[in-house]
Structure formats: structure tokens, C-alpha cells
Amino acid sequence: MRTTFKGEIVAIQPGQYTLYVFKNLDEPNNSLLRYFTVTKLPNWDVTSLDIGDIGFVECDYVNAGDKYYQSSTGNMETYNYTVCYLLHFIKETPKVKQKEYNF
Fold first, then answer.
1. Could you say which of 3.30.1490, 2.40.50, 3.30.70, 3.40.50 is the CATH number of the domain covering 2-91?
2. pTM to 2 decimals?
3. CA pair distance 47, 32, nearest whole angstrom
């Protein structure tokens, strides 16, 4: 199941499978879903992220035993783990308040 939310990176565990802990800014402070971990796979092209980055996170929740199509082999494979994979992170940019442009 894919989902998108606004989040802030609060911790990073680097490695071949980098783990990011996000604070879900769409959830209230006392929610059980306020913090969670996502995994960035080594062959997925996601930009480098730093602690404190705020933006929009797209991730995919998968369950162990679910099937997926492996494009490199052309076969159906099975997920071994229940995990949330990081698909995209779009950093929030400040709004431009300039009303006049001089060329």
C-alpha cells in the first residue's frame, strides 16, 4: 500500500539498506503513528537526506509473503520481510513572496 505524508527526518542509520526515522507531521503528538522507520534500498534512486529535512514522503508498505514482479528476472517474487520502503522524498521549499520581476 502506497502512502504520502508530510514528514521530518529525525534519525538516520546509514548502511547498504539505509534506515530513516520520520516524524509524521500529519499526525498529532500523542499518536502511535507519529514516528516510524522507512528503508531505502541500495538500488533505488532517492536523493541524499539529512536530519531535519522536511518534505513529502512517499513510501510503500509491504508484508512478508506478498508477491511482486521482479523486472530484472521477469519473475514473480515474494517479499521476505514486512517493511516500509522509501520511494520518494520531495523537500519542502520556501514560498517566494516576490511580486515584481525586473528583467
1. 2.40.50
2. 0.80
3. 28
